[in-house]
Queue: 3 jobs
Job 1
Amino acid sequence: MKFEIEKIKGIIVPLITPVDAEEKIDETRLRKIVNHVIDHGVHGILAFGSNSEFYMFEDEEMLQATRIICEEANGRVPVFFGMGKIRTSHSVALAKKAAELPVAGISILQPMFIKPTDEALYNHFRTIAEAVPETMVLLYNNPGRAGYTMSLPVVRRLAHDVANIVGMKDSSGDVTYLSEVIRQNQDVDFRVMAGKDTIVYPALAVGAVGSVCSTANMYTELVAGIYDKFVAGDLKGALENQFRLNPIRLSQDAASFPAATKDMANLMGLDLGASILPTEATTGVILEKMKNEMKAGGFL
């Protein structure tokens, strides 16, 4: 089967999930943020990435919200479904349901909390991918959240052995690791995306096809411009965009993950509701630092 891997490119935004006072997903505001990011230039949407608070929602909540996102996007940009269940059988069941939606692909985080052997991790991903053979699957390496890095040999085996594992999002922030994933899988056209907003430019320089950036919820044109200018040959302009973004993004690091993304979106009037408890909104000195960097970047 030929997969539409060309859909995996550019700036894909892990869409903020807006909730109401009862922590139910707010459909009206969800549709609004879908249109906001598309109108301002993203190349794709990831439903239920890390900054979408995927770990806070039940399966049916995630699936229903993704249906709404797909409906509102209406083919204007590809929509991907993100998941990170620990149990393999649970992952298979959810992936099968997600594959029934009009999504371009499924992004799967390595299991959190536990630390599988390389062989166990290989079997986990292969089992899930082979359960949805007609759907593109992206590996998602996030050592900061999962507690360990997917080894290069595991990534290489999966890329070469499983037909529908066609790419990867790497949130390690390690450009050497990222470039090795790209180098070692060039022969199978494995599409690699950075998962750190601060290294979009260097990732593109070593062969990444784009980046998954939470800041694209708020600073959409700035972040999308890094990619658009780079592929147009305006390397100076792309780097200027990257350097304008970085201090804003770095100011989030002192806040509780993932509160800062919603905090900044709400400061900019996007009205996406509170973070889901126990995550609480950023306050005090940390919030002031975030505001100062947003002002310095021209966003407040």
Job 2
Amino acid sequence: MPSATPELISPRSARVSAARRLAKRNSRGKDRLFLAEGPQAVREAAGHRVDATSTLVELFATVEAADRYADIIGAARSAGARVHLASEDVIADISTTVTPQGLVGVCRFLDTPFEDVLAARPRLVAVLAHVRDPGNAGTVLRCADAAGADAVILTDGSVDLYNPKAVRASVGSLFHLPVAVGVPVRRAVAGLQDAGVRILAADGAGDRDLDEELDKGAMGGPTAWVFGNEAWGLPEETRVLADAVVRVPIHGKAESLNLATAAAVCLYASARAQRASGGCRSVTQS
């Protein structure tokens, strides 16, 4: 049985209105705050800090969700976040999903300066060049996290990192690895090359085959994969900046792979090559 009653029951209250505005990019940029929805994202946000400052600022929860996820509520309070028990109508008003899960967090921006990414001497990086679809951006971020990448870079002209759909699609991975935003493509490539990172452009028309690159043992060094826009891929001016343009081989009859799937294949290929001397860690290993 629920152990309490909601304190926020009106969608018109000031706190609810302030949170609801964060669904809009202009409001997010002005306040430097964004929404994280659902237990996985809120759990990760509650444990995340930037320079000892908690990322989670505020948490809205239905009474049922607060009872079900008491550990998350406790973590949020330990992080110093304000916790509000809210009615289902309030959560529905703040949430950007069709079926809210009862938890919506308000978080501080957490993107990392590009210079800090370079200073960490990354070995595996995903660069999203003018990627516009938030679901794709969040899914690639999740793939990069799973493959053990050191950072993700969103170039200028790419989707807002804090778009609610991108945050949801990352399934908490947004809080796991550094993400630099708004970096011009040329600057991203030049900076990574200066840091000793090989730049591989992923393109279905690439002159090099991913399988052949793996067979040659050419994938073991520090690598940044550049992935292009969903509709038109990588323009020639971006392709020529790369050290090589690599295609994922299509062995069956499929016309192509979508962005997120191709990114997963490429990132895992690099991850396996980089770990070859010590063995490949399986994601299914218990």
Job 3
Amino acid sequence: MSSAQQGEGFPYKLVATDLDGTLLRDDHTVSQRTRDALAAATEAGAAHIVVTGRAVPWTRHILDDLGYEGLAVCGQGAQVYHAGEHRLLTSVTLDRQLAGLALAKIEAEVGPLSLAASRDGVDGDVLIGPGYQAQEGPLPYVPIKDASELWSTPLNKVYVQHPRLTDDELWAVAHRVAGELVGVTMAGAGIVELLPLGLSKATGLAIAARRLGVKAADTIAFGDMPNDIPMFGWAAHGVAMANAHDELKAVADEVTLSNEEDGIAVVLERLLTA
């Protein structure tokens, strides 16, 4: 990766931002300073695109609150969503047979897992199986008593938790024993996910950028977790938040302030006045 050359005006045509831990503060809101900085970048000719691990149903209300009418990449790249039209443009689902085989291989290594899953579609529910520790907050989910219900409809991804292993440990085991069957990523605290093989935020962002007529060389990306690594690899310039996972910081072009300290705005304001 290499930084774009600063010329007159804003040097990028696309600003790609993760949501949780990046664009959103810890109270799930976007600060006025960050809103203003993004609006100024847009006024300077750049498009802003949200690239999040959240599926559309968990993203839509945030985009509506921002008055966001462009494209968003959701579900770790599985979904390209048109916010202004409230419709999916593309959607990739997880092969449930491969996912089941992957889970069997992981459980053979570490013992029983607790599971959750994100159903496909603009209104797809997130199902929470027995023992899965859902995060407290405003995001809706549907608890189920029998984990077999997870497999009844098309899915974008499966969430896995282990009673003893840390997120990093579970990710490492899952990637080692099942990485040839499914994609494995870590999107936040307690969030290890199984995805369609080859899918990442980078693949979804590339599709959206192509629709916008923008290239990787014109893109600056902001993130905080290992699931943002592919996006940083695709974009010309990757900016990790101060609160980011060490693996992301290791591949970032720069580290800004935290999501609580308007880290996105700090960088955009600097670029807008350069």
